[in-house]
Amino acid sequence: MSINEIQDELIEEFSLFGNWMEKYEHIIQMAKELPIIEEQYKQDENLIKGCQAKVWLRADFKEGKISFTADSDAIITKGLVGMVVRVLSDHTPAEIMHAELYFVDAVGLKEHLSMTRSNGLLSMIKQMKMYALALQSGANVN
Amino acid sequence: MKTDSAIFQEILDVQKIRKDFPILDSKVNGRPLVYFDNAATSQKPWHVIKAIEHYYTDLNSNVHRGVHHLSQQATDAFEASRKKLADFINAKHDREVIFTKGTTESINLVAHSYGKQFVQPGDTIIISALEHHSNIVPWQLLCEDRKAVLKVIPINEKGELLLNDFKSMLDEKVKLVAVSYVSNSLGTINPVREIIALSHLHNIPVLLDAAQAIQHIPIDVQELDVDFLAFSGHKMYGPTGIGILYGKEKWLNQMPPYQGGGEMIKTVSFEKTTFNELPFKFEAGTPNIEAAICLGAAVDYINETGMENIQQYEHELLEYANEKLAEVEGIKFIGTADNKASLVSFIIDELHPYDVGLILDQLGIAVRTGHHCTQPLMDFYCIPGTVRASFAFYNTKEEIDTLTDGVKKAVSMLGN
User: Fold this and answer.
1) A-proximal residues of B, 380-409, CB under 8 Å
2) Neighboring chain A residues of B384 at a CB cutoff of 8 Å
3) B127 vs B17, B102, B348, CA distance in Å?
4) Cis peptide bond N-terminal to B279, omega within 30
5) Best exposed site among B30, B83, B190, B292 by fewest CB in 10 Å?
6) Could B359 and A118 be called an inter-chain contact, meaning their C-beta atoms sit closer than 8 Å?
7) φ and ψ at residue A26, rounded to 5 degrees
C-alpha cells in the first residue's frame, strides 16, 4: 500500500469512533501492537527526547526500503508513534521524504503535533525524514 | 472530617468568587473547565481585567518623565501600585520594592548584582534540592563566573529540607542562601524562619523564592527578617510580565545596577554616569506600566478576600484532595511534607504522567504533568515527572471529585 492509502485506511478506521474515549482506546490498542524496538537499540543515540515523553526510533534499510521500529515510555505517545510508523515504514526514502501526513489532522489528533504537547512526535517525524534524506543521498545510517 | 460544605461556606463564598473569574465559565472539550494548574499561572478576576482596560483607555502614558497631565496620572498610579505591593508584604520602605518581569528576573538580578559585589572565588552559595530551575541556574551561572561553589540542602523522602545538614553547611564562606518558600513540585512549605535565623547567626543574607507562597501565605518581610524576596504577578491573579524583587535597603544600596538604560541614571556623560536612587537604579528602561498598575488591582482583590481566609479555605481543599485521591488504586503522592501548600503531586503505578494528563484534558481538567522545571528533584525520586493539581481559592471540592473520577477513568483506560 502507498503511504496515502495507509493514511486513508487509518482515517476510515477512526471514522468509526463516536467519541474521544473510543478513539483513545484505539490509540492505546495500537500502542500494544507496535513493532517494538529491540531493547539493545533503546539507547541514547536512538532517543528522541521530547520534554515529557521519551521516544526511541530505529531505522533499517533493506532492498531500497526503510523500516522503522519505535517505542515510547508514554502509552498514548506510543500509539501515535505507532500510527506514524505504520504509515511511513516499508517505503522508499523518496516516498518518505515527500510524504505529507494529512491523517493526523483528519483523525482529529492535530493537537498532538503542537509544540506545547512536547511529546516528541513532531521531532520523530522530522527524524524519520532525516533518515530518508540521508539514505537518499547515499549516507549510511546504520 | 472537615469537608462538609457548610464549613467551606463559612470561610469564603466561593460561588460568588467564581463569578469574579470569567474564564472559569469556559467549556473544554465540551465539559466545564476544571482549572487545577494554578501553580503554573492563576486566572484573573474582573477587577484586574477591567483595570487593564482602564489603563489603556484612560491612563496610558510613560512614567516618571513627562510634565504633562497623563504622564503624571500614569506615574501616580504606578507608584501607588508599588505602595500597595510594599504594604502587602509589609516592606519598611516603598523603595525596597522593585518591579521586574517576574520571579526569574528578580532572582537573576540578585545573582548578578549581589554576586558581583559580594561573591569571591572559593565562596559558597546555598540552594536546596527542592528548587525550580529558576532558582538553580542563575546561581550556577554566578558560581561559574565567580569560581564559587554551589551547595544544595538535601531533603528527606517526604520532601522536607534536612535542617541539620543545612546547619553544618553554614560557615564564613557562605555568601547567600537562596531557597524557595514553597516547593512548586511538591507543595512543601519550607521552615523559612529557621533558615533565616540560622543564616543570620552567620551574617548570611537569605533570598526567598516566594513564587509559590505569595498567593497562599500572608508574608511580612520585616517579621520574617528576610533579605530578598522574589515573586511573580501572574501567579497571584495579576498580569504576566510583572514581578517583584523586595530587597532590604542596606543590600540594594550596596549592589551595582543590573541593567543600564533610561530611568536608572541620575546624570550621563561619556566620561561618567551616576546612578539614580532606589528603586529606579534597578528599573532600567520603560517598565511594564500596565502590568505594574494592574498587579495593584490584584493585591486589592486579595486584600478584599482576605489572605487568612484564602489560606484556610485552600488548606481545606488540600485535605479534601488528599482524602479523595487516596481512593485511586495505585496512587502514590510525591511530596508528603507535614506542612504543605494547596497542591498535590502524584504518580500512579506504572502509568506515565503525560498519559494521565492527556486523558484528564479530554475531561476538561487542566493539570500540569512533567518535571515542573525541577529535574534534579525528579531524579531524587527516580521518576520522569508527576501529575500536579494545584488549587486556588476559586476551586471547589466538587471539582476535586471531578478530578478523582477523571483519574480513575484514566487508570481504567491506560492500565492493562
Assistant:
1) 384-385
2) 52, 54, 73
3) 37, 19, 30
4) yes
5) B30
6) no
7) -65, -40
Contact check, Cβ <8 Å, A52/B358: no
CA distance B254 to B275: 12
pTM of the predicted model as reported, rounded to 2 decimal places? 0.93
Alpha carbon of A22: minimum distance to chain B alpha carbons (Å) = 10
What average pLDDT does chain A have? 86
According to the model, what pLDDT value does residue A114 have? 63
Give the residue-averaged pLDDT of B26-38. 96
**From CA B199, how far away is CA B166, in angstroms rounded?**
9
Q: Is A81 exposed, middle or buried (0-12, 13-18, 19+ CB in 10 A)?
A: buried
Name the helix (H) or strand (E) containing A131. helix A121-136
3-state secondary structure of B117: helix
The confidence score (pLDDT) of residue A109 equals 82
Contacts of A76 in chain B (CB under 8 A): 354-355, 358, 414
First-last CA distance in chain A = 26
Look up residue A49 and give its three cell numbers. Answer: 527526547
Catalytic residues of B: 373
Kindly provide the b/e burial profile for residues B209-236, where b requires at least 16 CB atoms within 10 angstroms of the residue's own CB: bbbbbbbbbbbebeebebbbbbbbbbbb
Does B355 contact A77 at a Cβ distance shorter than 8 Å? Answer: yes
